[in-house]
Amino acid sequence: MAKLSTDELLDAFKELTLIELSEFVKKFEETFEVTAAAPAAAAAPAAGGAGAAPEEEEEKDSFDVVLEAAGEKKIQVIKEVRALTSLGLGEAKALVDGAPKAVLEGANKETAEKAKAQLEAAGATVTLK
Prior knowledge:
Number of strands: 3
Number of helices: 7
Order of helices and strands: HHHHEHHEHE
Distance between the termini: 40 Å
């Protein structure tokens, strides 16, 4: 197998959906027995202890849109999940059936709130984390 350059790897990652990328990170962590979240978790206590926690939440710039329940209009929710992600019909249905699950991960505030509004309009129960 040919060795890929850093730019080639980045181009390959750009083509993945957030869910596919999340699955890749989990698999990478399992394979190499590492944790990608460790540096961020270690940096939080050094930022000023418990008093800094409320500030961090106010300045949060990355949100996860979590589908808590599909509600009565499940088909509409599946359509919205497909519109928000690049998932196929079967994958979107599985995500909706497996609620609570993240629909979008690491989205900016505007995108996350727009997605939440669209899903709630379709009848779903959604939270932002």
